[in-house]
């Protein structure tokens, strides 16, 4: 939902000209996978982009933290969208950042910008896992429908429905699970952030079929959580860590989530 936008300080408003300047921004992606930003004209990063469009956007998988978190750095050039494209950009943003069509979307004094060119992408999947992403492969990739169809609503519904059951299923005679939160979903499964006391892990629960709708995800997870034996047969078990790092085995959609 948010990323770190790194721009180059201009000499217009600050003496640190040429230094990298990092800031946290919300973003969405258009149908081609290009990031769109809603930026205030008063923000330092907006002023920097007006002087030099070169920047990077660093995106992490939601729900993870620590140096072993999967993340991607997108290199590109950001420019303001023309007036006639502002409303379409607003629709893209609203679709990603609201939890329902009736929710009001408060913009403030902002203008929409787009990373018109993506020159490179650098992926880090945790300790020892790094890779430059082929831009043509990125552009050709197709996101899972369940990822782009109001993902916040999907995760909220799944957590409200299954969090208690997951805590019980993840507990054992030796230890009781203190918290279980579904932090991501794709067509092949869910990732569950699990806490035992001060220790965290992430469990991968796989599906037996490709899941494309919220309703089908609920039905399949209802079956998976119906018994301990059924649950354990789908648990691809965790990459365990201490409280300072959460291990990420892969980054399925953080580098590209299209919201059309």
From TrEMBL:
Signal sequence annotation: none
Segments traversing the membrane: none
CC annotations in GO: cytoplasm
UniProt name for this protein: CREG-like beta-barrel domain-containing protein
Domain of life the protein comes from: Eukaryota
CREG-like beta-barrel domain segment(s): 2-139
Coiled-coil region list: none
PANTHER family the UniProt entry points to: CREG1 PROTEIN, PYRIDOXAMINE 5'-PHOSPHATE OXIDASE FAMILY PROTEIN
């Amino acid at each position: 939902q948010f990323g770190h936008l790194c721009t180059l300080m201009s000499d217009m408003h600050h003496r640190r000209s040429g230094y990298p300047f990092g800031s946290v921004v919300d973003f969405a992606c258009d149908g081609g996978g290009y990031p769109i930003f809603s930026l205030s004209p008063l923000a330092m990063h907006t002023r920097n982009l007006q002087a030099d469009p070169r920047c990077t956007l660093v995106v992490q998988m939601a729900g993870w933290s620590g140096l072993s978190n999967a993340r991607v750095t997108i290199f590109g050039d950001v420019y303001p969208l023309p007036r006639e494209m502002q409303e379409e950009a607003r629709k893209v943003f609203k679709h990603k950042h609201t939890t329902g069509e009736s929710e009001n979307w408060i913009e403030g004094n902002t203008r929409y910008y787009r990373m018109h060119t993506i020159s490179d992408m650098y992926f880090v999947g945790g300790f020892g896992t790094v890779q430059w992403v082929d831009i043509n492969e990125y552009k050709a990739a197709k996101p899972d429908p369940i990822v782009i169809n109001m993902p916040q609503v999907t995760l909220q519904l799944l957590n409200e429905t299954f969090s208690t059951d997951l805590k019980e299923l993840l507990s054992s005679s030796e230890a009781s699970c203190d918290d279980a939160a579904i932090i991501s979903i794709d067509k092949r499964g869910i990732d569950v952030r699990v806490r035992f006391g001060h220790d965290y892990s992430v469990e991968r629960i796989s599906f037996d079929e490709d899941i494309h709708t919220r309703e089908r995800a609920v039905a399949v997870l209802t079956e998976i959580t119906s018994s301990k034996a059924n649950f354990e047969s789908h648990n691809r078990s965790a990459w365990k860590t201490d409280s300072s790092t959460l291990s990420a085995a892969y980054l399925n959609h953080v580098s590209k989530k299209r919201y059309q």
